[in-house]
Amino acid sequence: MQIAALGECMIELSGAPLRKTYGGDTLNTAVYLARLLAGGAHAVHYLTALGQDNLSDELLAAWQAEGINTARVVRLAARQPGLYLVETDAAGERRFHYWRNDSAARAWFASGIDFATLLAGLDAVYLSGITLALFPHSERTHLIAALRAFKAAGGVIWFDNNYRPALWSPAAAREAYPQLYALADVALLTEDDDIAVFGPADADTMLQRALAAGAAEVVIKRGSLPCLIANAQQRHEVAPAAVSRVVDTCAAGDSFAAGYLAARLHGLALPAAAAQGHLLAGTVIQHPGAIMPQAAMPALP
């Protein structure tokens, strides 16, 4: 399967003293998917734009070293990657500061992308609420129309509801999210993000909302609480193992998505796939930054 993640990756500054790495929600998932699927029949692509500067060269080389196919990464002159700074408290919770408005990815998302060409030959597309928010409204409409055509032609769509209020309003997200649920073969919803967009609700209400909109399979991510998974035939709750020391919760949800999706691609049932998502996320949060060392990766069964 030819899998592509669509979004933006940025330079990450974190730690004390500061260290320079990289991260971005869909890129984080792409890295962990590429690691978990390495050596098999699946390939992972990343769809984004970078500049023609040294920082962009470093990002491209790092992604290629992770086994990500970068042939569809656009390079724009006079643009650079976005930047974010992470502050982490004693419990591992993080606060972000962004410098991304003039990034290469933002410029590309506003440029009128030829989605038919971009998506040609792909079997699955993974994107997030952050991806949607980075597109101007008119271009977001074109993206969703292209995803409908991709789905109608047999493509698989995975959607994560990652929501950042600094990027767009709850009203704008409420307009867009049901359209993605209607296309999603798997919808991965973080409970707090769903509440931020749709208002207070319990997890079962969230499940039913996404299923009613058309999602084939829905996962509600709830941090250290059991996640909920459902499709038209079954519903499960799967608890994560306790983590004794949380260092950094960056990429917890992104890595859960990678573990879950990789497990489903390997034919694991819903509860077993959720357990793999929890295992990977629980390992990631014991390391600083969004991308933990390859040596720390747990293997799929």
Automatic annotation (TrEMBL):
Occurrences of domain Carbohydrate kinase PfkB (ranges): 4-293
Pfam family, one: PfkB
EC assignment: 2.7.1.45
One GO process term, biological-process aspect: DNA damage response
Keyword Transferase: yes
Metabolic or biological pathway: Carbohydrate acid metabolism; 2-dehydro-3-deoxy-D-gluconate degradation; D-glyceraldehyde 3-phosphate and pyruvate from 2-dehydro-3-deoxy-D-gluconate: step 1/2
Sorted UniProt keywords: ATP-binding, Carbohydrate metabolism, Kinase, Nucleotide-binding, Transferase
A GO molecular-function descriptor: 2-dehydro-3-deoxygluconokinase activity
Single GO cellular component term: cytosol
Catalyses which reaction(s): 2-dehydro-3-deoxy-D-gluconate + ATP = 2-dehydro-3-deoxy-6-phospho-D-gluconate + ADP + H(+)
UniProt family annotation: Belongs to the carbohydrate kinase PfkB family.
Function: Catalyzes the phosphorylation of 2-keto-3-deoxygluconate (KDG) to produce 2-keto-3-deoxy-6-phosphogluconate (KDPG).
PANTHER family the record matches: 2-DEHYDRO-3-DEOXYGLUCONOKINASE (PTHR43085:SF15), HEXOKINASE FAMILY MEMBER (PTHR43085)
Protein name, as recorded: 2-dehydro-3-deoxygluconokinase
